[in-house]
Design goal:
single chain; 142 residues; alpha/beta; Rossmann fold; 4 strands; globular
């Protein structure tokens, strides 16, 4: 099985997982998430990650997505995944958004992982744009 594992600061990963579930199907066993909370600390987060990873078998694959590349949640998750021997089957991406996650969930089983991630990153770059609303100006406003 290929798992999408979301990690973040606070509850961002949980929110992404729930929003993705609304759009890609609820009650999915292939979506895992964990968030580094202020009151938990690094040790508690590490234990949460280990608990979540118990469902992953050595032959499974993990697509690990974090909110910030190089952030504590992503680096801690990568270290824990390495400790439990799953790093060779893990692809890691930081700085994701909801469209990225939804497409990854829907396409992970029909595309090669490296190809999927490369395509996703290429498509994500132009998605970030400023949304400007133009207002109509009447002659009375002048």
């Amino acid at each position: 099985m290929k798992y999408v594992f979301l990690v973040s600061h606070g509850e961002f990963a949980q929110g992404l997982a729930h929003a993705a579930g609304m759009l890609a199907g609820k009650d999915r066993d292939d979506i895992l998430y964990a968030g580094l909370k202020e009151d938990t600390g690094a040790d508690g987060f590490t234990e949460e990650l280990k608990e979540k990873l118990k469902v992953v078998k050595p032959e499974d694959e993990i697509l690990l997505f974090g909110d910030i590349i190089g952030g504590s949640p992503l680096t801690t998750a990568a270290n824990v995944i390495s400790e439990v021997g799953l790093l060779p089957n893990t692809s890691i991406v930081g700085g994701v958004n909801l469209p990225f996650i939804i497409t990854s969930i829907l396409m992970k089983d029909v595309m090669d992982t490296d190809e999927l991630i490369a395509q996703q990153i290429e498509e994500a770059r132009p998605q970030l744009k400023e949304f400007v609303l133009e207002t109509e100006t009447s002659d009375d406003d002048i």
